[in-house]
C-alpha cells in the first residue's frame, strides 16, 4: 500500500545525445514508485523519456498534472537534459527530444510556458529539480573538467531557474551555477546531482529520525552540501521562497532509530491554510527602481522588518520604486536552525541567490537599493563584491542594520559555540577575505550611499564589530535591540525615517533615540555623567539606569552602588538591578571577559537579595536561574548552580500561571539538576509560547549550559538535537 497518497511527480529524461538523462529520470521513478521507499502511487507519477519527451509530450504531461492535483497535493518536477539560451531574444528554454535548431519556435519549451503551466497547478507545495547544463560535462570525469567550454551550451542554469520561478513559493533547485556544468563522476551511472538526490530521497543522510520522512529542506541542504563536496567546481542553485517544508519521500521501512511512527497526521495534513507567503511588497509596471529587503536567518522578511516595507510602499516620494523581500522563507531551515548565526554554506546560498536575482529577476531595474539586517548584511556585502561591474553600478543605496561586519570575537570559554561559529570569527577566512576585498574594491569611495546602523541595546552584535570597518560619517545609531531596531510597527522611529530620508535625498538626525543611549553605546560615558548627575533628583527610571551604567563604565563602581542603595527609584527595585546585570551578562557572553561576568554576578546577587526580602517570586526565579547559569560558566561551581536551580524551582511553585518564562526557567533548572526528561518536557511547552527572539534567548542559555556541563560538541547528541528542533526550527 502506498504511503504518500497525495504526492505527485512529473519526471523528464530527454535522452538523445545524453542517455544518462534517461537513466536519471528512471532512477528517480523507481524510488518514488517503490512502496518500501518513497511510496508514491504509480498512477500519480508521469515518466517521460526519449521519444515521449517531445515539446507536446511535456506540455501535455503538465496539463495532466494540472487536472490530477489538488491544493493539498505535493508535486515533484524533475528535468534532466539540455537547457538553452537564445541571445537575440534573451530567451531561456528547455530542449525537448524533438528539438530542431532551425524550427526552434515550434520545438522548444520556453521558460515562460513552463511558468504558465506551473501557475495552473493548484498546489503551492511544489519543487522543481533541474539537471541542466550537461553539455560535454556529462560524459567527462571531473579530472578533465578544466578543459570543458560551457559557452557552447546554456551557461546560465540559475537564470533559467529564475525565469521559470512563478514567485509564489515554488521551490527550484538547479544542478549548477552560472558558467558551470553538471557532471557525472567516473564509474557512476547517474549524474552527480541526481546521485545525491537519490541518496537523500532514500534517507541515506539520516542516522536519527524524528519522523519517518524526508522533507524538502533536508533535500536542499543535502544536495548543497554533497555536490560541491564531491566536485568543488559544481555548485547547485536554489531559490529561497519555499511555501511549505512538505514531505518529499518516506524512509525505508527497515531503517533503524525511527522514534516517531505516528505518520497519518503528517501525511494528510493540509498546510494550504497557513499564513500566505509574502513575495512582493510593491510591484508596478512602470517602476525603474527597486528596494530589496534582505533579512537574516532567524525568520522571514515580514517577521524581520515589521511594517517598514508597507509604510515605504505607501510613501508618495517613493513612487517609481518597487519593493521585494529576499532571503530564506520561514519554511526553509538553515543548517544551524532559525538562529541569529548561520553557517558559511547558508550565507553562500543566500549570496548566490542575491547575485542571480540582481542579474535576472531584477535585471530590468536601473537602480537597486538594499536594506539588510543581521547576517543579511554579510550576504549583501559578499554579493556586491562578486557582481560584475555593470551590475554593481546599479546599486544606489545599501543599509546594513545590526551586522557583525568585522566578525565575532573568539573566546576560549565555550568550545561548542566556537565550533559552530568558526566561520564568523573575526579571524576566520570568510570574514578576513570579505573585509580585505571590501577595502580594496572601495578604497576610492563608494559608488552608492552607505549607512551602517547599530542598535542601542543590540544583545548579539557589538558596536565594534558593527562600525569598526567603516568611516564615522557612514555610521548611525538607532534605538532598540537586535530585532526591534528593524521590526517596527509604527512610523514614529528612527529606522523608518533613516531609510525614507536617505532614499529621498533628505538629511537625517535622530529624533526617537535618546542621546544618552547613543553615548553609552559608543563608550562616551563622561558625556552621560556630566549631563545626568547634576540633575540626579529629577531623572526618571531610564535616566537612572543610564547614569548607573555610565558610572560603571568609568570604573566608578562605589558611586553606582551608592545610587542603587539610596536613590528613591532604585530602592528595593530588583528589576532595575536585573536589567543592569543582564547587560553585563550579554557583554560577558559576547567576549567572555571575566570583569563583565563578575559584574553580572554582583548585580544578580544584589537583585536576588532584594527580591527575597520583598517575597517577589517572579523576580526570585528570574535572578536565581541567571545565577545558576553564571556560576556554571564563570566559576565552574556545579554545587552552587544546583542550589540556585532549586531556589528557582521553589519560587515558581508560588506562581500560579504557567507563563512562557516560568516554563523556560523550569526547563533550565531541571537541566542543571540532571533531570533531562523533565527539562525537555518544560522546554517543549515553553517553545510553543515563545516568539523568535525568546526562542533564540532560551536556546542560547540551554545550549551553552548543556555543552558546558556535558563537555560535548556532538551535534547528533539527543539533547542538542532536541533544543535545535524546539527552538531553532
TrEMBL record:
Gene3D superfamilies: 3.40.50.1460, alpha/beta hydrolase, Tetratricopeptide repeat domain
Name of the protein: Uncharacterized protein
InterPro entries for the chain: AB_hydrolase_fold, Caspase-related_regulators, DUF676_lipase-like, Pept_C14_caspase, TPR-like_helical_dom_sf, TPR-S
Peptidase C14 caspase domain residues: 8-229
GO BP term, pick one: proteolysis
Organism field: Algibacter amylolyticus
Organism superkingdom: Bacteria
Ranges of residues in domain DUF676: 288-392
Amino acid at each position: 500500500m502506498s504511503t504518500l497518497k497525495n504526492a505527485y511527480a512529473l519526471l523528464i529524461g530527454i535522452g538523445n545525445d545524453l542517455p544518462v538523462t534517461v537513466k536519471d529520470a528512471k532512477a528517480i521513478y523507481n524510488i518514488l514508485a517503490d512502496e518500501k521507499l518513497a511510496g508514491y502511487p504509480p498512477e500519480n507519477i508521469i515518466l517521460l523519456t526519449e521519444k515521449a519527451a517531445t515539446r507536446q509530450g511535456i506540455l501535455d504531461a503538465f496539463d495532466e498534472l494540472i487536472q490530477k492535483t489538488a491544493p493539498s497535493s505535493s508535486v515533484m518536477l524533475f528535468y534532466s537534459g539540455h537547457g538553452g539560451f537564445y541571445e537575440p531574444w534573451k530567451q531561456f528554454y528547455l530542449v525537448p527530444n524533438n528539438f530542431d535548431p532551425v524550427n526552434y519556435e515550434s520545438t522548444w519549451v520556453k521558460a515562460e510556458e513552463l511558468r504558465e503551466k506551473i501557475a495552473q497547478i493548484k498546489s503551492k507545495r511544489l519543487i522543481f529539480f533541474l539537471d541542466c547544463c550537461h553539455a560535454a560535462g556529462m560524459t567527462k570525469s571531473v579530472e578533465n573538467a578544466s578543459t570543458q567550454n560551457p559557452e557552447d551550451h546554456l551557461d546560465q542554469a540559475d537564470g533559467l531557474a529564475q525565469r521559470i520561478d512563478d514567485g509564489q513559493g515554488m521551490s527550484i533547485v538547479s544542478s549548477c551555477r552560472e558558467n558551470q556544468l553538471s557532471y557525472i563522476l567516473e564509474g557512476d551511472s547517474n549524474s552527480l546531482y541526481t546521485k545525491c538526490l537519490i541518496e537523500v530521497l532514500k534517507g541515506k543522510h539520516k542516522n536519527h529520525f524524528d519522523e519517518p520522512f524526508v522533507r524538502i529542506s533536508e533535500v536542499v541542504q543535502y544536495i548543497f552540501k554533497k555536490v560541491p563536496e564531491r566536485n568543488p567546481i559544481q555548485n547547485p542553485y536554489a531559490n529561497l521562497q519555499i511555501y511549505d517544508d512538505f514531505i518529499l519521500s518516506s524512509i525505508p521501512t527497515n531503517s533503524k532509530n525511527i522514534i516517531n511512527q505516528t505518520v497519518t497526521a503528517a501525511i494528510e495534513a493540509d498546510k494550504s491554510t497557513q499564513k500566505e507567503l509574502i513575495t512582493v511588497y510593491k510591484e508596478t509596471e512602470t517602476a525603474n527602481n527597486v528596494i530589496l529587503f534582505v533579512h537574516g536567518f532567524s525568520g522571514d522578511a515580514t517577521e524581520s522588518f515589521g511594517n517598514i516595507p508597507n509604510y515605504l510602499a505607501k510613501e508618495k516620494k517613493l513612487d517609481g520604486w518597487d519593493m521585494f523581500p529576499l532571503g530564506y522563507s520561514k519554511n526553509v531551515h538553515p543548517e544551524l536552525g532559525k538562529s541569529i548565526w548561520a553557517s558559511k554554506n547558508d550565507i553562500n546560498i543566500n549570496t548566490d541567490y542575491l547575485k542571480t536575482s540582481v542579474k535576472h529577476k531584477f535585471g530590468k531595474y536601473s537602480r537597486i537599493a538594499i536594506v539588510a539586517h543581521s547576517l543579511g548584511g554579510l550576504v549583501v556585502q559578499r554579493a556586491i563584491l562578486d557582481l560584475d561591474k555593470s551590475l554593481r553600478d546599479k546599486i544606489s543605496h545599501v543599509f546594513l542594520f545590526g551586522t557583525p561586519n568585522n566578525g565575532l570575537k573568539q573566546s576560549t570559554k565555550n568550545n561548542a559555540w566556537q565550533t559552530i561559529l568558526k566561520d564568523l570569527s573575526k579571524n576566520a577566512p570568510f570574514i578576513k577575505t570579505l573585509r580585505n576585498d571590501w577595502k580594496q574594491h572601495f578604497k576610492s569611495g563608494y559608488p552608492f550611499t552607505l549607512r551602517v546602523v547599530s542598535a542601542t541595546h543590540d544583545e548579539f552584535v557589538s558596536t565594534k564589530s558593527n562600525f569598526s570597518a567603516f568611516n564615522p560619517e557612514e555610521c548611525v545609531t538607532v534605538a532598540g535591540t537586535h530585532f526591534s531596531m528593524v521590526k517596527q510597527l509604527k512610523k514614529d522611529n528612527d529606522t523608518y525615517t533613516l531609510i525614507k530620508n536617505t532614499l529621498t535625498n533628505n538629511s537625517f538626525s535622530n529624533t526617537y533615540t535618546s542621546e544618552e543611549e547613543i553615548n553609552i553605546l559608543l563608550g562616551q560615558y563622561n558625556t552621560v555623567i556630566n549631563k545626568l548627575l547634576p540633575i540626579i533628583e529629577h531623572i526618571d527610571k531610564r535616566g537612572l539606569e543610564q547614569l548607573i551604567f555610565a558610572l560603571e563604565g568609568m570604573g566608578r563602581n562605589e558611586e553606582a552602588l551608592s545610587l542603587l542603595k539610596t536613590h528613591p527609584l532604585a530602592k528595593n527595585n530588583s528589576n532595575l538591578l536585573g536589567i543592569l546585570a543582564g547587560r553585563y551578562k550579554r557583554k560577558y557572553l559576547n567576549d567572555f571577559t571575566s570583569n563583565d561576568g563578575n559584574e553580572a554576578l554582583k548585580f544578580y546577587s544584589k537583585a536576588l537579595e532584594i527580591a527575597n526580602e520583598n517575597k517577589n517570586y517572579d523576580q526570585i526565579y528570574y535572578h536565581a536561574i541567571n545565577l545558576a547559569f553564571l556560576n556554571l560558566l564563570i566559576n565552574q561551581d556545579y554545587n552552587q548552580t544546583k542550589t540556585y536551580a532549586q531556589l528557582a524551582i521553589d519560587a515558581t511553585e508560588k506562581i500560579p500561571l504557567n507563563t512562557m518564562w516560568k516554563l523556560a526557567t523550569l526547563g533550565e533548572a531541571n537541566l542543571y539538576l540532571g533531570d533531562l526528561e523533565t527539562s525537555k518536557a518544560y522546554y517543549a511547552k515553553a517553545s510553543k509560547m515563545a516568539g523568535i527572539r525568546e526562542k533564540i534567548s532560551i536556546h542560547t542559555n540551554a545550549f551553552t549550559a548543556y555543552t558546558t556541563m556535558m563537555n560535548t560538541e556532538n551535534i547528533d547528541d539527543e539533547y542538542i538535537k532536541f533544543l535545535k528542533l524546539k527552538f531553532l526550527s
